[in-house]
Specification:
GO terms for molecular function: transmembrane transporter activity. The protein is 71% helix and 0% strand. It is an all-alpha fold. The protein has a single domain, classed as Up-down Bundle (Amino acid/polyamine transporter I), CATH 1.20.1740.
Length: 652
């Protein structure tokens, strides 16, 4: 059974200023007033403690019970995982292509906190984890040559070597491509929207606020966070436990240390100690330096293998693999192998549906990380960047590492199974490097690379878990971060030690612990469906509000621009039309009749006004003649009319 380890979700951005907490979200204690969520912390801790004690005290029973339960679930609902994960990819693409993609993850005037290059680099760091190093050569080789177990897909076993090799890389692309990142898009976008757009704490529960409402900050929200926290811790612990096998195998391959249980336990404890120190010293001092170093080593290893390997073949293979993936995307996305019977169900449960459950169980971890670094991006930028950039770099990694291994198998006839029919994923990468110039140096770089990935995974995982446990506090207390980092390493080391006592690595409880992490994917897939519904409601509501505001704005601009112009035009048109209408009616006999009537009315009104005035002033005659001479001393000179009479005469 494969055991992918997705890691290196760096928490180097956690120093950002925390978002404002909603009312009632914080409590006493903790930074920023968030405080420890006791139900989440203690219930999650209790579940983890009981599971680990069960695995330590009764490893055989625990392994049998949990593994059987997980296999039953995967076998029964494998079709559900295939359908729902493909739906997540489609959902993200639809959101990005719609008007919802224009919405900003933050305030409308917020700008991205990181440059495009830095953002892409951190997205690559989130995807370029332990799993890619571990499975870079092993998974394509397994799908090509592993006939001892559920390795070669049942529908590819009868194909010729070149065709089977091409299909092996295409199948690998399916497991590590758009579908994996489509899962992370749903969780990351939901959390980013709640945190940056709505100002909620960095916690899974707040992504469901549109459908939970006031119940978000109740026991229902606690259950959601507990599921996310338990799945994350079990995932990190199993990654540390299984991934250490590759470091031990690499050291053995280089002749540094023999591969033994004691060496594996020491490696886990050393990695845990370094991760704990990094968590205690702060993300800027520890993880940031290690992440930058890791990126440089990964780029160096990739370029070195490209140059030292079959360069021209690999460049052609990159183009061909992308074409194969795009051409067969729909068929691969809905592949359930119903006509392959038990072989098809067994292979699907061991690989594709296993991966989908694994990515879902890890999605709280990775989703919270990519949400934290995406403030100021639009929804479309977020989806496009998260889907395409890590996917493209992942394809490049698998083509160079896996393509080199397949080239050696097909064209050089190298048998990586060593006659057993089984591919050992712990040594496949080192066996591939052994056939290249400078293979020992490449193997040494790979060992260092995996080790740093372990440290960054444990540290950033502890940071994310502590944020969840502290009600979404973006800067949780140091002491609890140390607790989570230590817990994951101690659990892994304990289970590895128990495996040595039982003499059976698969009976140690480590595989069962991984199965337990996968079981958390089932309830969390329901949470993710709720996230899709919540996200659609919130984004569509914002689009409607934006459309209404845009309509009002257009109406206002229209009124401001055209009101005066339209008023002048209407006034001129109406005035002109009335004038023309009156003028047309005044022409002809009818117009002359109206004119005569108007003249008569005017003359009558004038005569009436004159009669009234002369009655009030009898000194003025209607014919305008001057009055008789007066002997009054105050009268005017003889023969001259008085002033008022003159004015009235003039008025007349």
């Amino acid at each position: 059974m494969p055991h992918p380890e997705r890691g290196n979700v760096s928490a180097s951005t956690a120093q950002n200023s925390p978002p404002s907490a909603p009312e009632g979200a914080g409590s006493s204690g903790g930074s920023g007033g968030y405080g420890l969520s006791k139900p989440v912390f203690f219930f999650a801790g209790g579940i983890i403690l009981l599971a680990v004690l069960f695995a330590l005290l009764l490893p055989d029973v625990f392994n049998s019970l949990i593994t059987t339960l997980n296999d039953t679930v995967v076998a029964s609902i494998g079709w559900y995982y295939v359908l729902i994960v493909t739906a997540f990819v489609v959902f993200g693409i639809v959101i990005a292509m719609s008007r919802m993609g224009n919405i900003k993850l933050g305030k409308d005037d917020d700008v991205p906190e990181y440059s495009v290059f830095s953002w892409f680099a951190m997205l690559f760091a989130a995807g370029m984890g332990i799993g890619l190093v571990f499975w870079g050569a092993a998974e394509p080789l397994t799908f090509f040559a592993d006939t001892a177990g559920p390795g070669v897909p049942p529908n590819a076993a009868a194909l010729d070597d070149p065709v089977r090799a091409e299909r092996a890389l295409g199948q690998t692309f399916l497991h590590w491509g758009l579908h994996a990142w489509g899962i992370y898009v749903i969780v990351g976008l939901s959390v980013a929207y709640a945190v940056h757009r709505k100002g909620r704490p960095v916690s899974i529960r707040w992504a469901l606020e549109p459908i939970l409402g006031k119940r978000t900050d109740t026991w229902i929200g606690d259950v959601i966070d507990i599921i996310a926290l338990v799945g994350t811790l079990f995932g990190i612990a199993t990654s540390l436990g299984f991934g250490v096998n590759q470091i031990a195998a690499g050291l053995d391959h280089l002749g540094v240390l023999p591969n033994s249980t004691m060496v594996q336990v020491i490696i886990v404890l050393v990695v845990t100690a370094l991760a704990t120190l990094s968590a205690a010293s702060g993300v800027d001092k520890g993880i940031k330096i290690l992440s930058n170093l890791n990126m440089g080593l990964a780029a160096l290893l990739l370029i070195a293998v490209l140059i030292l390997g079959p360069t021209l073949f690999l460049l052609r293979d990159v183009v061909s693999n992308i074409g194969f993936y795009l051409q067969n995307f729909l068929q691969l996305s809905f592949q359930t192998l119903p006509f392959r019977g038990d072989d098809g169900a067994s292979w699907l449960g061991s690989w594709t549906t296993f991966y989908w459950g694994w990515w879902i169980s890890w999605s709280p971890f990775v989703g919270v990380f990519i949400a934290r670094i995406s403030k100021g991006r639009t929804v479309r930028e977020f989806i496009t960047g998260v889907l395409l950039v890590p996917t493209a770099l992942t394809f490049l990694w698998f083509t160079i590492m896996g393509g080199t291994a397949l080239y050696e198998a097909v064209f050089k006839g190298i048998d990586f199974t060593r006659g057993t029919g089984a591919i050992d994923p712990n040594t496949a990468l080192f066996d591939t490097f052994a056939n290249l110039p400078g293979g020992a140096l490449l193997s040494g770089i790979a060992v260092v690379l995996v080790s740093i990935f372990f440290i960054t995974s444990a540290d950033s995982g502890a940071f994310v878990m502590d944020m969840i446990a502290h009600k979404g506090d973006p800067n949780p207390p140091r002491i609890t971060r140390i607790f989570w980092a230590s817990a994951s390493g101690v659990i892994a080391a304990s289970l590895i030690w128990v495996s040595s006592l039982s003499g059976d690595a698969d009976a140690s409880g480590m595989t069962a612990l991984q199965s337990l992490a996968l079981l958390s994917a089932l309830p969390f897939s329901i949470v993710m469906i709720g996230m899709c519904i919540s996200l659609w409601r919130s984004l569509s509501h914002e689009v409607k509000v934006i459309e209404k505001l845009e309509l009002r704005l257009r109406q206002r601009e229209f009124m401001e621009r055209y009101t005066e112009e339209i008023t002048d035009e209407v006034t001129d048109r109406v005035t002109g039309d009335i004038g023309d209408h009156v003028e047309s009616h005044l022409e002809g006999p009818y117009g002359q009749q109206i004119q005569d009537q108007l003249n008569q009315q005017v003359e009558a009104q004038v005569a009436e006004q004159l009669s009234t005035y002369t009655a009030e002033h009898p000194a003025i005659s209607l014919d305008g003649e001057a009055p008789a001479e007066s002997t009054d001393p105050g009268s005017p000179e003889p023969g001259r009319p008085s002033g008022s009479g003159r004015r009235k005469s003039q008025d007349r």
